[in-house]
Amino acid sequence: MKLKELIKVVGELLSLELAEGYFEKDTAPTDNSFVSKLLTCFEQVYDELYRDYATAIRKTVVESAGGVIDLSGYRLCKVISLVDGEGKNVPFRYSDNALRADDGRYNLTYARLPNHVSWNDELVMPSSCISERVLVYGVMREYLASINDWATARQWEERFKNALQAASSKTVSMHLPLRGWL
């Protein structure tokens, strides 16, 4: 699903007056406050999903110089581990777009934030278990909360959480044959 298709679905579910011509363009319209607000809500929910359910785990080698590891080249969400060459955990502190650690070379494992999504881009979900439907529920929740429709926002919040819980729970069940004599 493309971002513009998601915005169109949310707009239709919320009965917003979105002109059909908006969705035929290659760039997001700037003259519609509904679309602008929906895009802001999308970014918040998309980042939330990546922060809480990210499977985009990356590994890299980083170097600390002067006690600072520069992270400006990474779209870091959170650090999974920072270890030295022997595999021992290294203590660190988060800093503004950096990590504070003793000088040296380390192996960094981290969860990555999503790339910026443009109007005509395909959406890449943080996990294969999470569908676009979950994202639609989250965007609707954010939009309704932003216009102070708290009762309806709570309903969509419940649907959003239930869909996330269903997506993240294990659905595989294994049945072994009964034990018997040969």
Structure description:
With 182 residues, this protein is an alpha+beta fold. It is globular. The longest helix has 21 residues, at 33-53. It is built from 4 helices and 6 strands, in the order H-H-E-E-E-E-E-E-H-H. It has helices at residues 3-13, 33-53, 132-146, 150-168, and strands spanning 57-64, 68-70, 76-83, 93-95, 98-100, 104-112. It has a 3-stranded antiparallel β-sheet with strand order 1-6-3, with no helix packed on it. A 3-stranded antiparallel β-sheet has the order 2-5-4, with no helix packed on it. A hairpin with a 2-residue loop joins strand 4 and strand 5 (98-100). The mean pLDDT is 87. The chain starts with a helix and ends in a 14-residue tail after the last helix. Helix 3 (132-146) packs antiparallel against helix 4 (150-168).
